[in-house]
Amino acid sequence: MSEHEYGAGPVAALRRIAFLLERGRADTYKVKAYRAAAAAILPLSEDELRERVTQKTLTDLPGVGASTASVIADALAGVLPDRLAKAEAEHGGPLTSGGTELRGLLRGDLHSHSDWSDGGSPIEEMVFTAMELGHEYLVLTDHSPRLTVAHGLSVERLTKQLAVIEAINGHVGAASGFTLLKGIEVDILDDGSLDQTDAMLARLDLRVASVHSKLAMERAAMTRRMVTAVSTTRMNVLGHCTGRLVTGSRGTRPGSTFDALAVFEACAEHGVAVEINSRPERRDPPSKLIELARDIGCLFSIDSDAHAPGQLDFLVLGCERAEAAGIEPDRIVNTWTRERLLTWANR
Ligand SMILES: [Zn+2]
Ligand SMILES: [Zn+2]
């Protein structure tokens, strides 16, 4: 094929543009049009789409506008759409220079969000993209009830989601080598308890627990809160432990202050992994804390914390930081097989 030919079809073209924009950290509203158009044409036959191109009625479809219609028409004609070429040129290159060796050892991702909480895409779109990235597993970790701004899931909604996860795994099939795992990003409440019932937490495959409220809590109280969560609850991964923001549209904020030695010693003692959160605006923990957790002997997980499919590709950014800190791959729990991971998480 010449460089202007394109053979993957209109749905793939629209999905690829959206993936690249998300990977390039575009705001959700800029990406929505491509995802909506892909969803709108997915059930339609190629014949119907061709007819609509001829009749110029693609834009009559809800969710298809002028620019997405031109992507569809080009892809149907076997021509590389301009918008896709531009997105590939702008956002298709490596995200960073390091981390690729470790990234090659990761089998999956333990922290991701769907549109059931504050993510931008349906669960199945996260799954397709995770499979395309070569993941063997993805843990779906939507938020817990008290995080109302992020539409945290009640026991009832999470129960429904678990049935959806089982249905998706049924459709994907064991032969695919991929499994969507049941998880949660559960809030660590002020007293160190977790924002979900123990019975519900017990039904999940893996639990990430994070602080999302009162980040500015005084040091001793924050230390108590985190040590209590790590020591007395059913958690597996301590998510973005300082809560800092270093860049991005939400602005910046300093991390929480706590006795990191005490918190990481508790993690090591209780087999809780310290998350290296790959989101560019988080870069959490800071390097000094990664090194401290390394020296204490903690386990780690390198997570995308993706809120959109393209953000699942952020993992290499966390890998670069783990490599820089010299963390042995076998201490990173998402280099493990699914069986080993689940045994650890439910011991
Ligand atoms: Zn979080
Ligand atoms: Zn999250």
Provide the β-strand percentage band: 5-15%
User: Which hetero compounds are present in the coordinates?
Assistant: zinc ion
Query: Could you say which structural class the secondary elements and strand pairing correspond to?
Result: alpha/beta
Q: Span between N and C termini?
A: 52 Å
What is the residue-averaged pLDDT? 97
Main sheet characteristics? 7 strands, parallel
Q: What does it look like?
A:
- This protein is of the alpha/beta class and about 350 residues long.
- About 45% of the residues lie in helices and about 10% in strands.
- The chain contains 14 helices and 7 strands.
- The protein has helices spanning about 10-25, 30-40, 45-55, 65-75, 80-90, 100-105, 125-130, 155-170, 200-205, 220-230, 260-270, 285-295, 315-325, 340-345; strands at about 110, 135-140, 180-185, 205-210, 235-240, 275, 300-305.
- A 7-stranded parallel beta sheet has the order 1-2-3-4-5-6-7.
- Helix 3 packs across helix 4, helix 10 runs parallel beside helix 11 (about 260-270) and helix 11 (about 260-270) crosses helix 12 (about 285-295).
- The longest helix is centred in the middle third of the chain and has 18 residues, at about 155-170.
- The chain starts with 9 loop residues before the first helix and ends with a helix.
- The mean pLDDT is about 95.
- The structure holds zinc ion (2 copies).
